[in-house]
Amino acid sequence: MTENIPRLRLEHVSKAFPGVQAVNDVSLEVWGGEILALVGENGAGKSTLMNLINGVVPLDSGKIYLDGQPVTMDSPRRALELGITMIHQELALIPQLTVGQNIFLGREPRRWRFWIDWKRLYAQAQAELDRLGIDVPVQARVADLSIAQRQLVEIAKALSYNARLIALDEPTSALTERETETLFRLVRALRDQGVALIYISHRLEEVFELADRIAVMRDGQLVAVGPVQAFTPAEVVRLMVGRELTEFFPKVPTQRGEPVLRAINLRAGREVQGVSLELYRGEIVGLAGLVGAGRTNLARLLFGADRLEAGEIWMDGRRVEIRSPRDAIRLGIGLVPEDRKSQGLFLGQSVRFNAGAGLLERLSRLGFIDFRRINQTIKAIIERLRVRTPSLNQRVRNLSGGNQQKVVISRWLALNPKVLILDEPTRGVDVGAKAEIHALMSELAAQGMAILMISSELPEILGVSDRILVMREGRIVAEFSREEATQDLIMQAATGQLERRVAA
Amino acid sequence: MNSSSNHAPQLSEFLRRNSTYVILLAIVLGFAVLAPEFLTVNNLLTVALQSTLVALAAIGMTLAIITGGIDLSVGSVAALSGALAAGLATRGGLGTYPGLLIGLMAGAGMGLLNAVMIVWGRIPPFVATLASMAIARGLTLVYTQGRPIAGLDRAFTFWGSESLLGVPMPVWVLLVVAVLVHLLLSQTALGLHIYAIGGGEETTRLAGVNVGVVKVCVYVISGATAALSGLILTARLWSAQPNIGVGLELDAIAAAVLGGSSLAGGVGGIPGTLAGAFIIGVLSNGLNLLEVPSYNQQVIKGLVFILAVMLDYFIKQRRTVRTRRAPLAG
Ligand SMILES: Nc1ncnc2c1ncn2[C@@H]1O[C@H](COP(=O)(O)OP(=O)(O)OP(=O)(O)O)[C@@H](O)[C@H]1O
Ligand SMILES: [Mg+2]
């Protein structure tokens, strides 16, 4: 911090949406050459604050100074011109375009003003990816990439602007540890070059590992700022939530009941090459593995979202054919998908609609929907998960990212299936709600539900699961009991250094 | 076993990329067998001429569809441009070329009106262009009093009935426009932004693209190509008819969709759209040659349309399953 003028200064910045004061009188400084972590519960106003800085939404009141000069941030274009970029929480890539086209969208290398210099565009995009050590083909269409790959491309895009201030809104939520490390290396390198970085994350370990200073938001207000050394993780959590949280992963030991679902030698393409597994009532099974190991594909097969090429599925001792999600739901299998925006939510519809969508048939009498009972059911779950919304009528599009995730989960919880598959259930969810979701999973298991949880966060896998399966290259390569599992063992199995199959 | 499993994806990949052309080829071959007159140079030129009117309007339509919008006004705009040009050239006394130019500008102007409603009025394209479809048709009827405008001179009718190097002028016009718009779409930043908007408007805005300007360009071009279609038809008919172009928008949409455009936006292209327009043209011509009554022709066209779109869909479906696997493997 050699400069004596902050790169960015916010003075009494506020922003309200109908029904919520999203950002409330925030004053904050960000310096060149530092990483400022911004933390807070879902809906605390972190993304909104970043959107104000990036000209995505206009200020209600307050002032923004860049290098000491007052600036009006009236459009994203203006922000880009001033050297401010952002990695958005919701993936912001265009699926129909290629990786290179996405990276340089809006500033394509040109010849004669209008013509795109495709050669240069792809060469520069390749250079950009190489610099970050990202291995994704530049000419591939984004639609054909996995979520983690998309996230990496998004990061490459934001960093390629050579910005002086970069806001990263939960950039690691879809990344594996290795990719996360790559990102950290980059972020640190940028800091050392004098870039100012704002880093939003719900993973406190990351925050403490990476940040120079921490800013905590609650209900739109800035409740604390200071150097990392001034905080302990527990303090940060208390500041975020405004109350004491006892344990991060409360684990209620459960009684394993009889088997519910049995899969034998499932196959589909290269991603799932002969997977057999058994799920028991009352048991939470954690499915670990690297991104691309085939975990999501397996989940989609069990849910009938993709076509099975070979193999058998048995439910309650009967052989069943699952040809569509509808079949799966009727058999009592639920899936909380990984990509909530495109697969889990009706963004333009209300919270009530989204959370209750699965209940309509069940809670109808003579074809008429029993709205009163639906409301009751949903209200209870929404409160339980602490979904922050002004009312059940709020459109899901207007909820914060983490609250959207909670709404998807509510829908499946409301359905109360026999087997619930959760694909990265707490991605983007704050610590409080995460604990709440984990507690709820334990409770459901205790009531006899069989749960299969996919997660790339090892602490989550270790904290919640009764039994842990590890997938690698389309196969289940290891199985551990809760007691014997360690981070090391799981990583070794996931990367192929260890193979051990406990006979199921 | 190994070689067959290698060839099958290649073949289906080829079919996927070229399904429109394969369908066009199949229909051409079918008619060539059924109707001996079909494959004569004369008849093929007629087909090209007939397809031109739809193809021109479909080019602009393709742009609108790629952005995720639509332009329902093309048929009415064609009629308005033709009537204005003919009226100004003859009874207006402006002469042929000023008349044609103003006709073309009127089309572009209607496009601008569409864009203003869509971009600044925030009216959905379907609704905005539905309104301008009525407005343009109404203006045409007011201007012509509902009667044809005849008395066009040779310079005007030249664009409809003469040929250069054995190729009719309308086909030349189509070629020039198609090449220009194709280059625009595939080689310029504006073209890339047209696709980008269809794939994600907000994302495109966040990338610093002026989305409004792009849409203005799209609808102005669509108005202009619709106008060209109307001018050429007027030249071919030797007179402006106030009710030409009724239903042109449907043919144009059909051509774009047959050519692989997705009404959801983000996908499409000019070569495909041309092939789509030719499918429609060949079908009309061939069915006429086979002396199928015109009422029955409508039914057959509808069926072929559905078949073609379904075929395309199935080929693509099979591919998406494959690609979803591929990238994860590495
Ligand atoms: N466009 C909008 N319209 C209405 N309300 C909105 C809009 N955008 C955000 N909000 C509301 O503003 C509040 C703050 O949201 P914001 O997205 O900033 O939270 P966040 O801190 O980023 O949360 P998360 O950790 O879940 O991403 C939330 O209550 C949200 O519902
Ligand atoms: Mg957020």
Automatic annotation (TrEMBL), chain A:
Q: Which domain of life is it from?
A: Bacteria
Major localization class: membrane
SMART domains the record matches: AAA
Q: How does it sit in the membrane?
A: Peripheral membrane protein
Question: Where is the protein found, in the record's own terms?
Answer: Cell membrane
PROSITE patterns per UniProt: ABC_TRANSPORTER_1, ABC_TRANSPORTER_2
- Molecular-function GO terms, alphabetical: ATP binding; ATP hydrolysis activity
Protein name listed in UniProt: D-ribose transporter ATP-binding protein
Q: Which UniProt keywords apply?
A: ATP-binding, Cell membrane, Membrane, Nucleotide-binding, Repeat, Sugar transport, Translocase, Transport
Q: Where is the ABC transporter domain?
A: 8-244, 255-498
Q: Which GO terms describe its cellular component?
A: plasma membrane
Q: Which SUPFAM superfamilies match?
A: P-loop containing nucleoside triphosphate hydrolases
Give the matching InterPro entries: AAA+_ATPase, ABC_carbohydrate_import_ATPase, ABC_transporter-like_ATP-bd, ABC_transporter-like_CS, P-loop_NTPase
Keyword Translocase (UniProt): yes
